[in-house]
Amino acid sequence: MHDPLTPIERKVYHFLLDFLAEHTYQPSVREIGRKVRIPSTKTVTEVLGRLEEKGFLEREHARSRGVKIVGFSSIGGVQPIPLYARVNPVAPYLTSENRERYLGVDRGLVLTDDSFLLRVVGDELAQRGILAGDLALVSPSTRAIDGELVAARIGGHVTVRLIGHLGAVVSLSTGTAGEPETFLGPTDDFAILGVVTTVVRTLRAPAPEVD
User: Fold this and answer.
1) Fold that domain 7-69 belongs to in CATH
2) How many CB atoms sit inside 10 A of residue 37's CB?
3) Residue 207: how many CA atoms within 13 Å on its side-chain side?
Protein backbone atom coordinates (compact mmCIF):
# COMPACT_ATOMS: atom_id res chain seq x y z
CA MET A 1 0.00 0.00 0.00
CA HIS A 2 1.34 3.44 -0.93
CA ASP A 3 1.70 6.15 1.69
CA PRO A 4 -0.27 9.34 0.87
CA LEU A 5 1.53 12.03 -1.11
CA THR A 6 2.08 15.61 -0.06
CA PRO A 7 0.75 18.30 -2.46
CA ILE A 8 4.19 18.93 -3.98
CA GLU A 9 4.91 15.19 -4.30
CA ARG A 10 1.57 14.78 -6.09
CA LYS A 11 2.39 17.62 -8.51
CA VAL A 12 5.74 16.05 -9.39
CA TYR A 13 4.23 12.56 -9.71
CA HIS A 14 1.41 13.71 -12.00
CA PHE A 15 3.86 15.73 -14.11
CA LEU A 16 6.05 12.64 -14.55
CA LEU A 17 3.01 10.57 -15.62
CA ASP A 18 1.84 13.11 -18.20
CA PHE A 19 5.32 13.95 -19.50
CA LEU A 20 6.22 10.30 -20.06
CA ALA A 21 2.90 9.64 -21.80
CA GLU A 22 3.56 12.52 -24.21
CA HIS A 23 7.30 12.19 -24.81
CA THR A 24 8.10 8.49 -24.07
CA TYR A 25 11.02 9.59 -21.88
CA GLN A 26 11.27 11.24 -18.49
CA PRO A 27 11.99 14.93 -17.86
CA SER A 28 15.24 16.10 -16.35
CA VAL A 29 15.47 17.35 -12.78
CA ARG A 30 15.63 20.94 -14.06
CA GLU A 31 12.55 20.44 -16.26
CA ILE A 32 10.64 19.10 -13.26
CA GLY A 33 11.73 22.08 -11.18
CA ARG A 34 10.58 24.56 -13.83
CA LYS A 35 7.21 22.89 -14.24
CA VAL A 36 6.33 22.69 -10.54
CA ARG A 37 8.20 25.91 -9.64
CA ILE A 38 10.89 24.42 -7.43
CA PRO A 39 14.03 26.55 -7.94
CA SER A 40 16.42 24.10 -6.25
CA THR A 41 17.49 20.92 -8.08
CA LYS A 42 18.42 19.49 -4.68
CA THR A 43 14.81 19.89 -3.53
CA VAL A 44 13.52 18.20 -6.70
CA THR A 45 15.90 15.29 -6.09
CA GLU A 46 14.65 15.02 -2.50
CA VAL A 47 11.03 14.90 -3.73
CA LEU A 48 11.95 12.13 -6.19
CA GLY A 49 13.62 10.29 -3.32
CA ARG A 50 10.44 10.46 -1.23
CA LEU A 51 8.37 9.22 -4.18
CA GLU A 52 10.77 6.30 -4.45
CA GLU A 53 10.53 5.57 -0.72
CA LYS A 54 6.72 5.57 -0.93
CA GLY A 55 6.78 3.08 -3.80
CA PHE A 56 5.63 5.34 -6.66
CA LEU A 57 8.98 5.40 -8.48
CA GLU A 58 12.11 3.37 -9.08
CA ARG A 59 15.31 5.24 -9.93
CA GLU A 60 18.63 4.52 -11.59
CA HIS A 61 20.74 7.01 -9.69
CA ALA A 62 23.60 6.98 -12.22
CA ARG A 63 21.32 8.34 -14.96
CA SER A 64 19.97 11.90 -15.13
CA ARG A 65 16.61 10.67 -16.46
CA GLY A 66 16.71 7.27 -14.79
CA VAL A 67 13.18 7.33 -13.34
CA LYS A 68 10.74 4.44 -13.77
CA ILE A 69 7.12 4.92 -12.71
CA VAL A 70 5.85 1.81 -10.97
CA GLY A 71 2.85 0.38 -12.85
CA PHE A 72 3.06 3.15 -15.48
CA SER A 73 0.19 3.58 -17.96
CA SER A 74 1.00 5.39 -21.19
CA ILE A 75 -2.19 7.47 -21.26
CA GLY A 76 -2.03 10.99 -19.88
CA GLY A 77 -4.36 12.01 -17.05
CA VAL A 78 -4.47 8.56 -15.48
CA GLN A 79 -2.82 6.99 -12.46
CA PRO A 80 -1.70 3.38 -12.00
CA ILE A 81 -3.71 1.78 -9.19
CA PRO A 82 -2.73 -1.63 -7.75
CA LEU A 83 -5.25 -4.46 -7.96
CA TYR A 84 -4.90 -7.00 -5.15
CA ALA A 85 -6.06 -10.58 -5.59
CA ARG A 86 -6.20 -11.10 -1.81
CA VAL A 87 -5.27 -9.48 1.49
CA ASN A 88 -3.14 -10.81 4.31
CA PRO A 89 -4.88 -11.92 7.53
CA VAL A 90 -2.52 -9.71 9.57
CA ALA A 91 -0.95 -6.31 8.96
CA PRO A 92 0.39 -5.31 6.52
CA TYR A 93 -2.78 -6.40 4.74
CA LEU A 94 -1.64 -5.38 1.24
CA THR A 95 1.73 -6.59 -0.01
CA SER A 96 3.38 -6.94 -3.40
CA GLU A 97 3.06 -10.73 -3.30
CA ASN A 98 -0.73 -10.36 -3.41
CA ARG A 99 -0.74 -7.65 -6.08
CA GLU A 100 -2.19 -8.94 -9.32
CA ARG A 101 -1.34 -5.98 -11.53
CA TYR A 102 -1.87 -2.26 -11.99
CA LEU A 103 -4.82 -0.64 -13.77
CA GLY A 104 -4.75 2.86 -15.24
CA VAL A 105 -7.57 4.86 -13.63
CA ASP A 106 -8.62 8.39 -14.53
CA ARG A 107 -7.26 10.66 -11.78
CA GLY A 108 -10.67 12.28 -11.43
CA LEU A 109 -11.89 9.00 -9.91
CA VAL A 110 -8.96 8.59 -7.53
CA LEU A 111 -9.85 10.26 -4.25
CA THR A 112 -6.50 9.64 -2.51
CA ASP A 113 -3.11 8.51 -3.76
CA ASP A 114 -3.03 5.45 -1.50
CA SER A 115 -6.13 4.01 -3.22
CA PHE A 116 -6.18 0.40 -4.39
CA LEU A 117 -8.55 -2.04 -6.12
CA LEU A 118 -10.20 -5.22 -4.86
CA ARG A 119 -12.68 -7.57 -6.52
CA VAL A 120 -16.15 -7.74 -5.00
CA VAL A 121 -17.10 -11.22 -3.78
CA GLY A 122 -20.75 -12.28 -3.76
CA ASP A 123 -23.96 -10.67 -5.02
CA GLU A 124 -25.35 -9.53 -1.67
CA LEU A 125 -25.18 -5.90 -2.84
CA ALA A 126 -26.95 -6.58 -6.15
CA GLN A 127 -29.86 -4.31 -5.17
CA ARG A 128 -27.35 -1.49 -4.97
CA GLY A 129 -26.01 -2.33 -8.43
CA ILE A 130 -22.82 -3.99 -7.18
CA LEU A 131 -22.13 -7.52 -8.37
CA ALA A 132 -19.55 -10.23 -7.82
CA GLY A 133 -16.44 -9.54 -9.87
CA ASP A 134 -16.84 -5.75 -9.86
CA LEU A 135 -13.71 -3.82 -8.99
CA ALA A 136 -14.02 -1.68 -5.87
CA LEU A 137 -11.71 1.34 -5.68
CA VAL A 138 -10.83 1.69 -2.01
CA SER A 139 -9.41 4.74 -0.22
CA PRO A 140 -7.74 3.63 3.04
CA SER A 141 -6.97 7.13 4.29
CA THR A 142 -10.57 8.38 3.96
CA ARG A 143 -12.51 8.19 7.21
CA ALA A 144 -15.68 6.11 6.89
CA ILE A 145 -18.94 7.66 8.02
CA ASP A 146 -22.16 5.81 8.74
CA GLY A 147 -23.96 4.56 5.64
CA GLU A 148 -20.88 4.50 3.40
CA LEU A 149 -19.58 1.42 1.62
CA VAL A 150 -16.34 0.06 3.01
CA ALA A 151 -14.04 -2.85 2.29
CA ALA A 152 -13.48 -4.90 5.43
CA ARG A 153 -11.36 -7.90 6.33
CA ILE A 154 -13.18 -10.34 8.60
CA GLY A 155 -10.87 -13.18 9.53
CA GLY A 156 -9.38 -14.40 6.27
CA HIS A 157 -12.12 -12.96 4.04
CA VAL A 158 -12.76 -9.56 2.46
CA THR A 159 -16.24 -8.12 2.07
CA VAL A 160 -17.84 -4.87 0.89
CA ARG A 161 -20.61 -3.62 3.15
CA LEU A 162 -22.33 -0.52 4.52
CA ILE A 163 -20.78 0.59 7.78
CA GLY A 164 -22.36 1.87 10.97
CA HIS A 165 -20.83 2.82 14.31
CA LEU A 166 -22.32 1.93 17.70
CA GLY A 167 -19.77 3.15 20.22
CA ALA A 168 -16.84 0.73 20.05
CA VAL A 169 -18.86 -1.67 17.89
CA VAL A 170 -18.97 -1.57 14.09
CA SER A 171 -21.94 -2.87 12.13
CA LEU A 172 -21.62 -4.13 8.56
CA SER A 173 -24.70 -4.71 6.42
CA THR A 174 -26.00 -4.91 2.86
CA GLY A 175 -28.59 -2.24 3.59
CA THR A 176 -31.35 -4.59 2.41
CA ALA A 177 -34.39 -4.98 4.67
CA GLY A 178 -34.49 -8.39 6.31
CA GLU A 179 -30.82 -9.12 5.71
CA PRO A 180 -28.78 -9.73 8.90
CA GLU A 181 -26.15 -7.30 10.12
CA THR A 182 -22.69 -8.26 11.32
CA PHE A 183 -21.58 -6.63 14.59
CA LEU A 184 -17.85 -6.47 15.31
CA GLY A 185 -16.13 -5.28 18.47
CA PRO A 186 -12.60 -4.79 19.83
CA THR A 187 -12.09 -8.52 20.44
CA ASP A 188 -13.10 -9.59 16.92
CA ASP A 189 -10.60 -10.34 14.15
CA PHE A 190 -11.41 -7.67 11.58
CA ALA A 191 -10.07 -4.50 9.97
CA ILE A 192 -11.68 -1.75 7.93
CA LEU A 193 -9.47 -1.50 4.84
CA GLY A 194 -10.97 1.72 3.53
CA VAL A 195 -13.93 3.51 1.98
CA VAL A 196 -15.18 2.30 -1.42
CA THR A 197 -15.23 5.42 -3.60
CA THR A 198 -15.85 3.94 -7.07
CA VAL A 199 -17.01 0.62 -8.51
CA VAL A 200 -15.89 -0.52 -11.98
CA ARG A 201 -17.53 -3.34 -13.93
CA THR A 202 -16.26 -5.27 -16.94
CA LEU A 203 -19.24 -6.53 -18.91
CA ARG A 204 -17.20 -8.86 -21.08
CA ALA A 205 -14.07 -10.78 -20.17
CA PRO A 206 -10.98 -9.62 -22.12
CA ALA A 207 -9.75 -11.82 -24.94
CA PRO A 208 -6.92 -14.15 -23.95
CA GLU A 209 -3.43 -12.98 -24.76
CA VAL A 210 -1.69 -14.64 -27.68
CA ASP A 211 1.94 -15.63 -27.25
Assistant:
1) Arc Repressor Mutant, subunit A (1.10.10)
2) 8
3) 3
CB atoms near residue 106 (< 10 Å): 11
pTM (2 d.p.): 0.74
Q: Domain residues of the chain, as ranges?
A: 7-69, 111-200
Question: Would you call 14 helix, strand, or coil by DSSP?
Answer: helix
The model's pLDDT over 41-66, given as tens digits with 9 standing for 90+, comes to 999 999 999 999 999 998 887 666 77
- Kindly report, residue by residue over 111-125, the tens digit of the pLDDT: 999 999 999 999 999
Q: Which fold has domain 111-200?
A: Umud Fragment, subunit A (2.10.109)
Q: Identify the sign of the CA torsion 127, 159, 171, 163.
A: negative
Which among 156, 188, 157 is positioned nearest to 171, based on CA atoms? 188
The continuous run of DSSP H or E covering 50 comes out as: helix 41-53
